[in-house]
Design a protein that fits this description.
9 helices; globular; alpha/beta; three-stranded parallel β-sheet; three-stranded antiparallel β-sheet
Length: 267
């Protein structure tokens, strides 16, 4: 995350108010969650998702104790370590960023896995049996999941459309987290006393006087394979390529039949 005068002040205030300082995710590892009896497979999945999301709730996007240091695999316990002293060039401008981190609430997936372990029958499909079919308009969480499935677990990607004989990415904007000005105000309002601090009023951008909003990236995400590459600026071509015809342009479900034929030919 960018370290500006405003974000530094928000980091300092939110971290002082953090509820996470004494909390470790390991506390949940020894907690037993008993699912209700007679749940269907879908019902069990919904129960596990509900538990995982309510058990690990982020305090504030600016709470330094809400993040984990990927180098040490431990949560940050010092604001200074979290902010660090890192300068990257973005758009030709040297800009200070925080230390790289992993979201604390990403540990939800670990808890979700634990809750489902032993309660679901083994899944019948392997990653090599799966296909991701996309027209390239896949961003944010979609792009991150697609990249990890493709590059970590060998799931094949098929992109449809675009210009003939030109590579097409399976994702269009694989950024980490998009924020709006209204989101920013909501988060700053959640930091007790922050918006009322007169010494900070010149740092906080005013809301628009019309029905308009501003959207921007508040977190960078880095490549699964090359940890120094920012995903926002990384082109990821699909493994296979299809084009629309008169029928599939009207009925995209026909593209699955085309993808199946493609893999029959390839395999």
């Amino acid at each position: 995350m960018v370290v500006s005068e405003l974000s530094r002040a928000a980091f300092e205030t939110a971290t002082l108010q953090s509820v996470h300082e004494s909390f470790e995710f390991s506390d949940l590892q020894n907690t037993t969650f008993q699912p209700p009896s007679n749940l269907s497979r879908d019902g069990l999945a919904r129960w596990a998702v509900g538990i995982a999301f309510t058990a690990i709730i982020p305090n504030s996007i600016f709470d330094a104790f809400g993040y984990k240091n990927p180098e040490t695999d431990e949560y940050f316990h010092s604001l200074e370590d979290f902010i660090g002293n890192h300068t990257y060039v973005r758009g030709g401008t040297p800009t200070q960023f925080t230390t790289k981190f992993v979201d604390r609430f990403s540990q939800r997936i670990n808890l979700l896995t634990k809750l489902l372990a032993g309660n679901l029958k083994p899944y019948g499909w392997k990653s090599e049996d799966m296909i991701i079919l996309t027209n390239g308009i896949c961003g944010s969480s979609c792009a991150l999941i697609t990249q990890r499935m493709s590059e970590k677990y060998n799931v094949s990607t098929v992109a449809v459309g675009g210009y003939k004989d030109m590579p097409l990415s399976y994702a269009s904007f694989p950024g980490s987290q998009v924020y709006s000005l209204l989101d920013l105000y909501d988060d700053l309002e959640g930091i007790d006393g922050f918006l009322q601090n007169e010494t900070l009023k010149d740092l906080i951008p005013p809301l628009f006087m019309i029905r308009a909003d501003l959207t921007f990236t508040i977190k960078e995400a880095y490549d699964v394979v090359d940890e120094d590459r920012v995903l926002d600026y990384t082109f990821k071509p699909s493994k296979y390529r299809l084009y629309y015809n008169e029928q599939s342009a009207k009925d995209p479900s026909l593209l699955w039949l085309e993808a199946a034929k493609l893999f029959d030919i390839e395999g």
